[in-house]
Write a structure and sequence with these properties.
The complex is a heterodimer of chains A (about 350) and B (about 260). With about 350 residues, chain A is an alpha/beta fold. Chain A has helices at about 20-30, 45-55, 100-105, 125-130, 150-155, 165-175, 190-200, 220-235, 245-250, 270-280, 290-295, 315-330, 345-350, and strands at about 55-70, 70-80, 80-85, 85-90, 115-120, 120, 135, 205-210, 240-245, 255-260, 265-270, 285-290, 305, 310-315, 335-340. Chain A is elongated and about 80 Å long. With about 260 residues, chain B is an all-alpha fold. Helix content of chain B is about 70%, strand content about 0%. Chain B has ten helices and no strands. The chains are: A alpha/beta (about 350), B mainly alpha (about 260). The interface of A and B includes residues 126, 140, 158 and 161 of A.
């Protein structure tokens, strides 16, 4: 099957709407945001021209679902799309399904429904070929504690067809070339994490999947990791899929974001789209002498009438002043005017709370 | 991505693990006990230490030590992945499920052969010391190497089925205790079956090593060896399908992956 993900599209998955009136403004405001899905080769023709202009997707999943036990949906209809050369931040609170998704992408779990394409090939039928170009770090480090750092890499060196020079290179890159005969059980968590990253880099991967990579790292280690990720992305063109539950951490590295909550994608798009969302989501809450008339007056501002209040989205504080002036000019008394500026963190919280 | 790479990877992992120490220590027990238990050559039948050691020693080794070695070693090999949380890294590497399991199974067989070899070395050393002590001709027995080789092969062949069964138990269990407990219980059942002279003991996987030391079955060695190898392959096959089908659909097993 030929990959035909339309990677330039942004995705907003409505899913469960935690704050429907509030999010109505977002949906209304983001006309360019739409669903994305992998299309079969039959549908390719019409999109070929457009697709060829877009970056090739490295990961493209279509409607994957997973249940650990019957009746408990861990993942529902996950459409994930990671463009080549991007740093994709996969966000969600603990237990939202990030690790399960990554495990499915690496073939660690049996795919129950939907399709997974990685590097343009179906994972089920080209598992070994795909995995030879993918590095991974899933949850805690997977290292043999009775072996040294070098021996741990040596275990996988020939499997990945890497040279001894490459082994030394990644060991140096991880800052562990001087650990000598020290076994892993004597390593700190940060050192283990760095060695795991070295292991993930061993095959010179085209794609790196990192699950909570900053776990156990000190602030200096986090900064180092961040700059290493950026460097590898810019200089070697490695695509990254990084999962985390901390938005601020991912925000500093990623250029595309996916947010998952309770096994459903809540958002997928560029960081800019998320920033736009942030602006669109800023609302001014109003209470006037006649809310119905105020609503009619403020319709051009996409005002919405709620039970007791009137909410109006705004992008900058000058707009709030304008709204107030319009109301006063229309002989409406303003009893309450409360601007609520949204941050990325609050958007994330809105998207990931029931 | 070849099988050789998978095999090398598995052998590298067992460096400095407890299974290596287990092998070195367990192989030493029988020769040590026999060394102190020897006393002196029987008057009127001056067989040397070599004869005595091999006849007695191999019986215990094949029937007790080798089966229990498989119970412990196969569990330790799998627990190495579980304890180090390393299964996911193994499975995310470009190896087929078949190569992963076959490499592990080969390592288990390699360890068993090393165990046999170490046991032979220890035994020869102990017997040699005894022979020197009593002025017996140790070197005269060296030309009986085909007999020794046959004994080794029979011991290994008769426990191959046990290795397959223990391997399967270890693969399917994330727990350390369960495969050991089941393996040990199955071995105890064999002892009980021998006690009650169960007529089908030669078909019971844990009873097969008994056939190499029993006069009753001395003309059926080939049959029992083949049966043991058949058991080994069957249990390995079950282990593989169970392992692979947990991770991929049946139809994709036949494709080049």
């Amino acid at each position: 099957m030929i990959s035909a993900c339309t990677s330039s599209y942004d995705l907003y998955s409505p899913g469960i709407r935690p704050n429907a009136p509030l999010l109505h403004h977002i949906y209304g405001g983001l006309h360019h945001v739409r669903w994305v899905r992998c299309t079969s080769s039959r549908n390719v023709a019409s999109q070929t021209k457009q697709s060829s202009m877009n970056a090739t997707p490295v990961i493209c999943t279509n409607g994957i679902c997973y249940d650990y036990s019957k009746g408990v949906n861990t993942l529902t209809n996950i459409h994930l799309e990671v463009s080549r050369g991007s740093i994709y931040g996969f966000l969600g609170p603990n237990g939202s399904g990030k690790t399960t998704t990554l495990s499915l992408l690496l073939g660690l779990l049996k795919n129950q429904r939907g399709t997974i394409e990685i590097l343009g090939k179906d994972l089920q039928h080209h598992r070994r070929e795909i995995l030879s170009k993918v590095g991974s770090l899933i949850e805690s480090p997977s290292l043999y504690h009775h072996l040294t750092a070098k021996e741990n890499l040596e275990v996988y060196r020939e499997i990945y067809g890497a040279s001894k020079a490459r082994l030394q290179e990644v060991l140096t890159m991880a800052g562990l070339s001087d650990t000598g005969k020290k076994t892993i059980k004597q390593f700190s968590l940060g050192m283990k994490q760095r060695l795991s990253l070295a292991l993930a880099l061993l095959p010179k991967p085209e794609l790196l999947m990192l699950d909570e990579p900053t776990n156990g790292l000190d602030p200096a280690g986090i900064l180092e990791l961040r700059s290493l990720i950026r460097k590898l992305n810019e200089e070697e063109g490695i695509t990254f899929l990084i999962s985390s539950h901390i938005l601020s951490e991912v925000e500093k590295m990623a250029n595309r974001i996916g947010i998952i909550y309770k096994g459903r994608m809540r958002f997928q798009g560029s960081l800019e789209t998320l920033h736009q969302l942030q602006q669109k989501q800023s609302l001014v809450q109003l209470n006037t002498s006649d809310n119905l008339r105020a609503w009619a007056v403020l319709r051009p501002f996409q005002a919405e009438l709620l039970e007791d209040d009137l909410v109006v989205p705004y992008t900058d504080i000058q707009q709030v002043a304008t709204i107030n002036r319009i109301l006063v000019d229309n002989d409406l008394d303003v009893y309450d005017l409360h601007p609520r500026k949204q941050t990325l963190e609050t958007i994330f919280m809105d998207l990931t709370t029931g | 991505m070849t099988f050789a790479a998978s095999l090398r990877s598995e052998f590298l992992k067992v460096n400095r693990t407890s299974v290596i120490y287990l092998m070195g220590i367990a192989a030493f027990i029988i020769p040590l006990v026999q060394f102190f238990d020897y006393g002196s050559p029987y008057p009127g039948n001056p067989v040397n230490g070599w004869d005595d050691f091999y006849k007695e020693g191999f019986m215990v080794f094949a029937f007790v030590f080798l089966p229990l070695f498989f119970v412990l070693a196969s569990t330790l090999l799998m627990q190495m992945e579980v304890k180090n949380n390393a299964w996911k890294q193994v499975l995310a590497s470009p190896q087929s499920f078949f190569h992963i399991l076959l490499a592990k199974f080969m390592v288990l067989q390699g360890l068993a052969m090393a165990f046999l070899l170490i046991f032979n070395v220890y035994t020869a050393m102990s017997a040699g010391v005894i022979d020197l002590q009593f002025g017996l001709d140790f070197l005269a027995y060296l030309d009986r190497w085909p007999e020794l080789l046959k004994l080794n092969l029979l011991a290994y062949g008769s426990t191959f089925g046990i290795s397959g069964l223990c391997f399967w138990l270890a693969v399917r269990s994330k727990n350390f205790i369960v495969p050991i407990a089941i393996g040990f219980s199955l071995w105890l059942i064999c002892l009980a079956a021998l006690e009650v002279k169960w007529p089908h003991i030669d078909k019971y996987v844990f009873g097969l090593p008994f056939t190499i030391v029993s006069k009753k079955y001395e003309h059926e060695h080939l049959l029992h060896q083949l049966l043991s190898i058949g058991y080994g392959m069957f249990f390995f096959g079950v282990a593989y399908f169970e392992f692979a089908l947990q991770r991929t659909p049946l139809n994709s097993l036949w494709r080049k992956r």
